[in-house]
Amino acid sequence: METGEKARRLQHLYEAIRNDSTYRSADMGTVFVPGRGSFEGRPVVFIGEAPGRDEERQEAPFVGAAGRNLNELLRDIGVPREAVFVTNLVKYRPFTSTGDNRNPTPEESRRALPYLNEELVILTPRLVVCLGLSSAKALLNDRSLKMGQANGTIFTGHGLQILVTYHPSPYNYRIPGKREAMAEAFSKLGKILSEPQ
User: Cα–Cα distance between 95 and 102 in angstroms, integer?
Assistant: First the structure.
């Protein structure tokens, strides 16, 4: 699929999500946060859980502290952020009763998954990288998945190669063991990307 056709189909998909009255739960923001990045050829697609407050403000994925950590992990393997596509399973910010960010519920993930699958059909990725358990559990249809075992592992699901790693949140990034596990997974990604397609 040509880049222009991908852009047109993504725009159409994002409009469909915005117009779907069943997509957002009552405990989600009203600002739609689309995926962003390169979708030329067969890109690497990173999938987070959901936008946070910073992402909601800028209407772009992974622009807050977790995004800075993601950029650093990519820099370490020599991949510019502009060369990949970054999106989220859920495209609106889930929030708690006090207004803080939270992970999407299984039901919110279930409602978002068909749209994510369509997004991936359009993008035709070389590899999908799930950042965190929410997107990994949804894509792999495995509610019992544990990050301790899944980190750095490549799975197959929906006809895709899926690499799973921790979410690069500041909380995870401050824990040496989790930071090392993320670096390990990204090192594996770097090796995959150095192989000819």
Answer: 5
Round to whole Å and give the CA distance between 142 and 153. 14
Nearest by Cα to 62 from 42, 43, 81: 81
- pTM higher than 0.85, yes or no? yes
Mean pLDDT in the chain? Answer: 94
Encoded amino acid at 140, one letter? L
Residue 8's identity, in one-letter code, is R
The range of the structural domain enclosing residue 131 comes to: 3-194
The token duo for 83 is 């060369």
44: β partners: 127
Paired strand residues for 28: 94
Q: Give me the pLDDT at residue 23, please.
A: 97
Half-sphere exposure of residue 136, counting CA atoms within 13 Å on the CB side? 23
CA 17/CA 141 separation, integer angstroms: 21
Q: How far is it, in rounded angstroms, from Cα 195 to Cα 197?
A: 6
- Overall average pLDDT of the 168-189 stretch: 93
CATH number of the domain bearing residue 156: 3.40.470.10
pLDDT at res. 197? 67
Residue-wise over 53-65: b if at least 16 C-beta within 10 A, else e?
ebbbeeebbbbbe
Q: Dihedral angle at the C-alpha atoms of 140, 110, 60, 128, nearest 10 degrees?
A: 10
**Overall domain count for the chain:** 1
